[in-house]
Write a structure and sequence with these properties.
One of its GO terms (molecular function) is transaminase activity. It contains 17 helices and 15 strands. By secondary structure, the chain is an alpha/beta fold. The chain has 2 domains: 144 residues, Aspartate Aminotransferase, domain 1 (Alpha-Beta Complex); 273 residues, Aspartate Aminotransferase, domain 2. Strands 4-10-9-8-7-5-6 form a 7-stranded mixed β-sheet, sandwiched between helices. Strands 1-2-3-13 form a 4-stranded mixed β-sheet. Strand 14 and strand 15 form a beta hairpin. Helices cover 44% and strands 16% of the residues. Helix 10 packs parallel to helix 11 and helix 15 runs parallel beside helix 17. The two termini are 34 Å apart. The structure holds 4'-deoxy-4'-aminopyridoxal-5'-phosphate.
């Protein structure tokens, strides 16, 4: 191991608390030190190259090392490195970005509150939705309904909206006024029901909860169009139309967390367009800047924004870095490139279908894989002990973790969640690179299956 790797590992162990790991175990193992990225590839400090099948944390939609984004940042830093949107002020970079963003969004959205991250977007969501109902003369409409195994961020409010039980255990969450219903994870929870019947059943759980709480108390339903961190779980087709019907019927706002699904991931600009529903708010981040600099936001429908602007008075919220000029300039360069180079269109019509078809060809009959889900540049392989009965391994998280480790050894980064291996490569990936991604993933899955005596 090189001296620079050792040095960074020592500093890291001395000073860092990492995300979602046992710190002591990580310190003993020593983290990988990533030093360079170009396109869909990464290099670590030992010179090993990886195909990044996760585009960072499903955020580098345009790939690493784009010169146009780099020069957008440096030009903006030279021109106006910082200013804010307080003090009755605005600036060109944020306006140019918003013009482009609302060109790309469906026409019934009109306003955005910029943030630095997805978690912050969902924090802003809680206060903004409650404010909206205040302004509408229904201040008792305060409760949010989220879903078990949903993920909306790591801060107090966003982690409360999420339904990760192990996260709730840290810090005494959820906050009051947040409820959770079941997730539309057919493979795990569908039992004998068809996917369509199960999708309806899950959606109708929302209706039952609204009725139990009282529609006059429920402010919003918040969900990811497809669950990301929970395991890239795609709901049955029956789910979203029924959820939308229920939200409309009881005047409950429908809030889509597009932090992963936004900016081309599914082949549509936004994941709700893929599933065919119309949310009132969109939480965005990640692909907005392709991860080059932090930026997120909460997009509001015109109906909500009109109420807040015309009747809301002072909006008692502000972040130092909302609409940061450098982030805005980078986001604009990113959106222009995704649009003008036809990258999202290619994901929908060409590379997305190629990835999905190839995955199914390789894994449909694999003994370890019980289900393949995905669209565009996002996919999941469900591991199972027995395909016919959809039996999952009791220690599925250990097994997928092993597969992910084999992936690193094979030179591909794929992620493990409880029982699923997931991938979300950059949208700029080529056919040859998709072949490489799948080939290396197959080797990692085969090694895992062989260890289990399945191959
Ligand atoms: N929402 C979803 C759906 C996410 O996947 C994430 C992050 N993985 C977040 C919100 C939180 O975003 P951030 O990490 O930028 O705070």
């Amino acid at each position: 191991m090189s001296t620079s790797t050792q040095r960074y590992q020592a500093i890291d162990a001395a000073h860092h608390i990492h995300a979602f790991v046992d710190q002591k175990a990580l310190n003993q193992e020593g983290p990988r030190v990533m030093v360079k990225g170009e396109g869909v590839y990464l290099w670590d400090s030992e010179g090993k190259q990886y195909l990044d099948g996760m585009s960072g944390l499903w955020c580098t939609n345009i790939g690493y090392g784009r010169r146009d984004l780099i020069s957008a940042a440096s030009q903006q830093m030279a021109q106006l490195s910082y200013y804010n949107m307080f003090f009755h002020t605005t600036h060109p970079a944020v306006n140019e970005l918003s013009e482009k963003l609302f060109d790309l969004l469906p026409g019934h959205y009109s306003h955005v509150v910029y943030t630095n991250s997805g978690s912050e977007a969902n924090e802003v969501l809680i206060r903004t939705v409650r404010r909206y109902w205040d302004v509408m003369g229904q201040p008792e409409k305060k409760i949010f309904i989220g879903r078990h195994n949903g993920y909306h961020g790591s801060t107090v409010g966003s982690a409360s909206l999420g339904g990760m039980a192990f996260m709730h255990e840290m810090g005494g969450l959820p906050i009051p006024g947040v409820e959770h219903i079941g997730e539309p994870y057919w493979y795990a929870h569908g039992g004998e029901l068809s996917p369509a019947a199960f999708g309806l059943k899950c959606a109708q759980e929302l209706e039952a909860r609204i009725l139990a709480l009282g529609a006059d108390k429920v402010a919003a339903f918040v969900a990811e169009p497809f669950q990301g961190a929970g395991g890239m779980i795609f709901p049955p087709e029956s789910y979203w139309p029924e959820i939308q019907r229920i939200c409309r019927k009881y005047d409950v706002l429908l809030c889509a967390d597009e932090v992963i699904g936004g900016f081309g991931r599914t082949g549509e600009w936004f994941a709700h367009q893929h599933f065919g529903f119309e949310p009132d708010t969109l939480s965005i981040a990640k692909g907005l800047t392709s991860g080059y600099v932090p930026m997120g936001g909460l997009v509001l429908s015109k109906r909500m924004a009109d109420a807040l602007v015309e009747r809301g008075g002072v909006f008692a919220h502000g972040l130092t870095y909302s609409g940061h000029p450098v982030a805005a300039a980078v986001a604009l360069a990113n959106l222009n490139a995704l649009d003008q180079e036809g990258i999202v269109t290619r994901t929908r019509n060409d590379t997305g279908p190629y990835l999905q078809k190839s995955l199914r060809e390789v894994f449909d009959r694999h003994p370890l894989v019980g289900e393949i889900q995905g669209t565009g540049m996002v996919a999941a392989l469900q591991f199972c002990e027995d395909k016919a009965s959809r039996t999952r391994f009791a220690n599925e998280a250990d097994i997928t973790w092993r597969c992910r480790t084999h992936g690193f050894e094979e030179g591909v980064i794929i992620r493990s969640t409880a029982g699923r291996m997931i991938m979300a490569p950059a949208l700029v990936i080529s056919h040859a690179q998709i072949d490489e991604l799948i080939d290396k993933t197959r080797r990692a899955v085969d090694r895992t299956a062989a260890e289990l005596g399945l191959l």
